Amino acid sequence: MNHATSAVRLTIAAASIALTISSLGWLPATTATAAPASPQIGAIGALPMVKKVKTKITKQPKSATIGRYGTKTSTTFSVKAKGTKLHYTWQYQAGAGADWVKIPGATKKSYTAKASSWANGTSFRVRVKGKKGTVTSKAATLTVLSPTNTPAADAMGQFGWTGITQGVDLSAWQYGISMPAVTGWVGADGFVMLRNASGSRPANTAYTDLCTGAKTSSGAVPVTKDCAYAGLADAAAGRRLGHYWFNGWIAAMDTTASQAFAKGYTPGQSATQFVAWLLADGNYTTSSTDPLVLDIESGSAWTKTVDGKKKTLTLRAWKPSEALVFLNTVRQLLTSQGYQANLYVYMGANNASSKTSAGSYVWRDVAAITRLWVASWGTNNGRIPTSAPKTGPWSTWSIWQYTANARIAGSGMGGLDADIARADAWTPKS
Fold this sequence. Notes:
430 residues, alpha/beta, Immunoglobulin-like, TIM Barrel, 28% strand
């Protein structure tokens, strides 16, 4: 055999096999090794090039005002920025000229500041770092409002009123309060509103006396005298007084056959008891024109065992017709004995301005014979709200409870209900 010829034949055969395999996609068409081609921009399968964006703040954080107490005690500072792979670092400044300090854990677009953590006047800013630079936001200032000691002056300055005085309203819940601190806070022309009694507990309900700590019961009728009333009235000597009765359980709201909650008690009986305790205290005389107030509010849910079954009822606020019975009875009882009756109702601003389906004010008839002590707290921060309260059919309020978060230094108490009054608040409505 000719070896040269055989070699040629083998070469041709191998090439033929290679071509066949290549055509089936198993091997490259050539056995030669080629250098890999450089990737081309825009070629299919090539990695895209990331364009880095310059770091820039597009929306700065804004200064904010919150209260030390109340419903608005925190705020959120936020920033908007552009850039690539942004990182945020919030800082605070305790006062003008102080160093900026990093806030641990504050690494997001926004930061929530709470009044419990930060002092009034603290400033905040954020540093935003990206692939193309680091920028710092403008500073935003946090204002933290504390309760005022001068609500009467504040209200006159804010709304342009005159003759406004200030006061607080107290009950057994404030038993042990330092009355010298209170009388000092309200001032020589100030006032103290006192709870005479409450009908909020059903009959024959055990409770703990807030003044003595002793176990006791509401007894056969659903009313209890406020254990701190007499002592607080005496201790408020020299300040104007007001007296209120918290509306309570009456027959009309007791759906049990045995009247297990109300025991048949009526608004008229409530009025009779209110007047008896008012006069027995001794602070109310024939020359007194103190506000005599029916506190119209809903109360708690109570559960009693009735005929072997548990029954739960919730104390609702009295209706206008029920309030009129109480108020007219109080006036008749007092005037028949030579006393005056400066009649009031207390309620929230929304209730005072509520209307019937026909569009008339619900409390129109009550407003005709009473003055209004209205509760309207705003954010309840211990300061006069920015808007005056709604008063419905009353032309105006006579006493305004503006907060439940007044703070009186030395009183021994935390938040207190505080009020302002108009100059004619102690004049009976004609």
